[in-house]
Amino acid sequence: MEDDIEYPPGPKDILPYTLERKFLRDPLKTLTDISQTYGDVSHFKFGKQNVYFLNHPNYIEDVLITNYKNFIKSRGLQVSKRLLGLGLLTSEGDYHDKQRRLIQPTFYPKKIKSYIDVMIKKTLNLCDHWKDGSVLDIHKEMTHLTLEIISKTVLGYDIKKEDDEIGDSLLICMEYFNRLLMPFGELIEKIPLLPINKGFQKARKNLDSIVYKMINEHRMQLEKNEKKDNDLLFTLLQSQYDSTGIEKMSDQQLRDEVMTIFLAGHETTANALTWTFYLLSENPAIDLRLQEEVSSIISNKIDISFDDIQKLEYTTKVLTESMRLYPPAWALGRQAINNCKIGKYIIPSGSIILMSQYVMHRNQIYFPQPDVFYPDRWTDEFKKNLPRFSYYPFGGGIRSCVGEPFAWMEAILITAIINRLWKMNSIQENKVILKPLITLRPKYGMRMQITRRD
């Protein structure tokens, strides 16, 4: 039957698992090479699994929007269930839709505005602890900051002492998932005594203890009628039972949603900020122009308003361009439920559809001089003429990231405040290498020397 299928062009292994080894070594280069060699749609195999790689906005729109009901989340997110359970990121169907309706109001514009004071306070507090001329791992700093912000604003919980342990545990989990996605990865889980399995179980246990601590503290406040703010965790707890006292959401489901918000709510923004400060350090003229805009709008004020954020047009362009070059989510996948047509090809049910923001964002058809950091390309006219899925740093479609508006406002605000107070300077010994796990991280962190602005 398979002999009758017309496959798109794509790489063929001369030796077994050659492509898998290349992908394991450098997935970004491998996918870039495939797209440049074989075009808008290509086909290859991972073991016996058919994989179709799409690199055209219209084809991506077909999968994520037009025919979205014909696809489920692919193995990458299935593997993530080991940590996230059936949270919003990994769930499907009616259950997903119900949870999304519950969570969505937390990220409505009016609600997001109420988070500004916390974002400002946490960012200024971080800046106050920095010392002029010191060398910092900016990725670590941004991870701490965004973790504190998402925990306080959305989950109503102050994280302080635990955050180093949380960051380490999350990294262990992501590296574990990456290994499971490789050929024969499923065999790893079947040998519990392997160090990688023991490391994952310990990391998950650490994260679970923090999440259940958040839940238990909120439940005690709710029972004593001591709640101060109606954050998302209170909303989830209040919806756990219906009016007759019947449980609608188990503690396990509650844990899964909190864990998903906890992970997805800070990791992507931390990476976006890290790459932005890196690019600014490499482009002094752009850094100076950004600093001039920020100084003219927020001056020496500490109380930045929502209207101030709306005026930061060049800051927004800088972040938009940074996330073009280093998108927080660098690839996403779906699995076909039924046979479907993409372009001129019939895609058999069970096939994996792979799409990469990193590759698409560097397509010179849509982005002239794609490897150049050029914020001024983002004019209204340029954006108007871009196909919908030529730029999608947070993913997209019917199941797009529910927290994207939150992430944008947070990133703009943090970029503006830090750029107003501090200049980031590259240091020679800083090794900048991409580490594509679930998100696009710097492999060795991002060490920079900071200088206080006058």
What would you note in describing this structure?
There is one protein chain. The chain has 454 residues and is α+β, with helices and mostly antiparallel strands. The protein has one domain: Cytochrome P450 (Cytochrome p450, Orthogonal Bundle), CATH 1.10.630.10. Helices cover 52% and strands 11% of the residues. The protein contains 20 helices and twelve strands. It has helices spanning 18-25, 27-38, 57-66, 75-84, 93-103, 109-113, 116-128, 138-153, 163-180, 185-188, 195-223, 232-238, 251-264, 267-282, 284-298, 306-311, 313-325, 357-360, 380-385, 404-421; strands spanning 41-46, 49-54, 71-73, 135-137, 332-336, 340-342, 345-347, 352-355, 422-426, 434-436, 440-442, 447-452. The protein has a five-stranded mixed β-sheet. It has a three-stranded antiparallel β-sheet with strand order 4-12-9. Strands 6-7 form a two-stranded antiparallel ribbon. A hairpin with a 2-residue loop joins strand 1 and strand 2. The longest helix is centred in the middle third of the chain and has 29 residues, at 195-223. The protein is globular, with a radius of gyration of 22 Å. It starts with 17 loop residues before the first helix and ends with a strand. The mean pLDDT is 86.
N-to-C CA distance: 71 Å
Shape: globular
Number of helices: 20
Q: Major sheet: size, sense and barrel closure?
A: 5 strands, mixed
pLDDT under 50 segments (min length 5)?
none
Task: Produce a short descriptive summary.
The chain is of the alpha+beta class. The chain has helices at 18-25, 27-38, 57-66, 75-84, 93-103, 109-113, 116-128, 138-153, 163-180, 185-188, 195-223, 232-238, 251-264, 267-282, 284-298, 306-311, 313-325, 357-360, 380-385, 404-421, and strands spanning 41-46, 49-54, 71-73, 135-137, 332-336, 340-342, 345-347, 352-355, 422-426, 434-436, 440-442, 447-452. It contains 20 helices and twelve strands.
